[in-house]
Amino acid sequence: MPLVFYRYFLPAPQQPADAIVLEEAKGLVPFKAFDSSWQNNNEHTAWKEPASYNRAVAAVSYFTFDPNTASEADWLRLGVKPKTVATIVKYRSKGGKFRQPEDLLKIFSLPKDQAKALIPYVVIAPAASNNSFRRDSLPARPTAPAKNIAAIDINLADTSQWIALPGIGSKLAFRIVNFRDKLGGFYSIDQVGETYALPDSTFQKIKSRLRVNGSGIRAININTATVEQLKMHPYIKWNIANAMIQYRQQHGPYQSVQDLQKIAIVTPEWLQKVAPYFTVQ
């Protein structure tokens, strides 16, 4: 009878709070996982902090720490509650990483003001690159010797010589040669840059390898050329071609190429550009 009375009428002996904390730290008493599923199942269960934690809060000390490597004791020294420490440890054990100090704000059970107080002390070690050793240990790739491409005469080069230049394919080579033939030859290297669909970056890359001999220009006799012949030249628009023929019919043969300045629609800039292709003989 005394045993029955002791069992049912006297309260069970309570385990000291400090012992609970110790057993939790050893893994003997599992922490209540602070996730949404646990909250839903235990939303009416009150969490009571161990007495040892309440005493430790008064002695919180701040120091620099890496949240990816800080121990449970470090978190407790920083004033973080044991249940939150358990959440952090579980997160890290599953491969979770803190990549920036502000990631502390993402810890659901860590009060925002406490997270903000800890952020200035966070120092996260940079992640080591998996390829760093391989890059350092591999021998340097030998650089290919620069191709020694000879300069070309832009009035004599065929398509194969143009293709040998960097950035020039078969289409561009054909366009350059075709443009040259319609002009009657190049008198300036810069004229190559006027080729249709030739990028200026490509032209600048090959410009130093180009040479010009202006003696091979094919000139048009403006005293005998027909309007159709004039219109075929890339620099002569149909209205100027018509004006040149009409002026010749009204005033007779041109005495010099400079007589074209007497035509109202002819500008000095245009005449300077096209004059190398004209003759009066």
From TrEMBL:
Q: Which domain of life is it from?
A: Bacteria
Among InterPro entries, the record links this protein to: Endo/Exo/Phosphatase_dom_1 (IPR051675), RuvA_2-like (IPR010994)
Its recorded name reads Helix-hairpin-helix domain-containing protein
Species, as recorded: Phnomibacter ginsenosidimutans
